[in-house]
Amino acid sequence: MASSTASKKRPARAAAPAPALPIWERWLRAFEAPRSPYPLAVFRILFFAALALHFFPSLLRLDDSYSPRLLRTEEWSHWLYVRFWRIPHGWLRAMSVVTMLACLAGLVGLRPRIAAAVAFAGCYAFASFNGLHVQTLALLSAWAVLMLMALCGGGSAVWSVDAVLRRWRQRRRGSPASADAPPTEPGLLPSLLLFQLLLAVFFAGIEKLLAGWPGSNEMGILMSYPRGFMLRDWAVSASFLHGEVATSLMTWLTILVELGTPILLLVGRTRRAALLAYQLFFLGIIAMMEVPPLFYLLFAGGALLALRDSEVAWVLARFRARPAAGAPTGPAA
Hints:
By secondary structure, this protein is mostly helical. The protein folds into two domains: 34-186, no CATH class; 187-319 and 329-333, no CATH class. Helices cover 64% and strands 0% of the residues. It is built from 17 helices and no strands.
């Protein structure tokens, strides 16, 4: 009896619960966790396309934009601005070609980390040589985006030449399971890009508060500009936009959107409404004002990085196939 009792296996002890992580480490883990790569891929395409639209006209026509005989303005690096005179025309042409190739490589997702570093060096150099044709407030955020892409890497998990080459190499090695696995992207780069762009929008609202926008009708001053200066022709001709009520409303909406949406985009329950208001705000800007496409595509595309994986999956499902019977008809909160 004793031997039979001893031979019985003792019940296995339950595994000890994992120690709770500190709150700051849990926050960082959520900040860096793998996530859907599609918002970052969309942003990469929009951003490099906007960069190409902004710089290619001047880079293709060097004699009309970067000639020692032309009027130049100093906007960025004084050291590069002064040494522009010593650079031969052939070197300028080679630099312009390399810069344009880097923008195209980033657009198609061919080594976007290297493409971002080269595009930053080239675009920054030409903007320093002569800022007359390319200077805009959006360039400051563009420099930050390029540096973050060069430092962190990523952005080519889907919809890129790198992704196509990666799948081709995996299938050639005989590992179709890994080739067909759902793609993911480290969350560090899209999170940093999102916070960088939202901080720019938020502090633009802070600047307007400090400049006295709440007590003045700044949009009324803007709407009084003549035709061909900042405003599009239809906005100048639309009389209903020039009234005091309409301009005061636009002034307060600008402040509220710039101060509110960067915060509400980070909250789950208000993210979708904030994203809609944010996109309509920037659509209104580019519809009424003559701003470069870089401004709109940079900030409007950057807000897409706030989408959660469930929302991205819901959007992709709408394009790929009709939902099955009983399937949810909207993204998870």
